[in-house]
């Protein structure tokens, strides 16, 4: 099926030659009007293509509100910048603000909510989503604001950044490009588009085995460095899928992790099937994602002056919040069954709890 996004990518290749997988992904996901995220205000949920912690209901936001309120108290500041990157239509920020208003009114009054989102339709939906919190909404835009005193957080943002795809050949590392062949999108080998790709693997202490493919997310480490520069004082909280570099680039994942999600079905990661890799199919109509290299993210944060507070599974991160909160007792009420079931979904091993990792960094 030909799509406007596919036509855009094909024309780009005709004009400039083969494109990196990172450029292909950027167009497929974010090209104005035709990219996957550019065409809709919301992509997750039971009627969408994938399911996130936000889709379980407001309890996830309520738990984050508990932790962010403790951040605010530890900082002792009159104003608290609540900055969500990759905020979508604002549902998670709304759930946090709802819980803060109900449970911590002093904290709520200190909040200046700032939503960062690249998708135009999603940004347009934010004011309606947060209509009941209008006075608390201080900013909605594409760029992370500077001078943040509070928390900058992102839920499943880094795994959606465009990645370069590399492969270890017999003569060394090469990059995979997207090209046209008889009108069909295909993957082709080529020289590295930047020496930063080999430097990334070397910095992580990784040597790929012959024939192994791997994604390198230069955009993620660059974003973390820029975010740290914009954080004047407070915390950076990142929730995402991924592994430490030694595991991510191991023989167990020699095909890479780049995959597509469509109607809650995941296609196989990058490979050499006769028809080509699944991630080339119908660009603009499917989500594209790859697992995050936590080692490189941590190194980028620490090089930028942040302190690593903790890296743990979402299960243990949320259990730690619950341990210091009366929320569990409140959720035992008969009319809170839906929230109890949502909490179970967030915590259960094998589900969102164990597959998502929470990284917390601080600038004191």
Task: Fill in the keyword field for this structure.
364 residues; alpha/beta; Rossmann fold; 2 domains; seven-stranded mixed β-sheet; five-stranded antiparallel β-sheet; 14 helices
How would you concisely characterize the structure shown here?
By secondary structure, this protein is of the alpha/beta class.
Structural description of this entry:
With 364 residues, this protein is α/β, with parallel strands linked by helices. It has two domains: 162 residues, 3-Layer(aba) Sandwich (Rossmann fold); 161 residues, Rossmann fold (3-Layer(aba) Sandwich). It is built from 14 helices and 17 strands. A seven-stranded mixed β-sheet has the order 4-3-2-5-10-17-16, with helices on both faces. Strands 1, 6, 7, 8 and 9 form a five-stranded antiparallel β-sheet that branches. A hairpin with a 2-residue loop joins strand 7 and strand 8. Helix 3 packs across helix 4 and helix 8 packs parallel to helix 10. The radius of gyration is 21 Å and the shape is globular. The N and C termini lie far apart (52 Å).
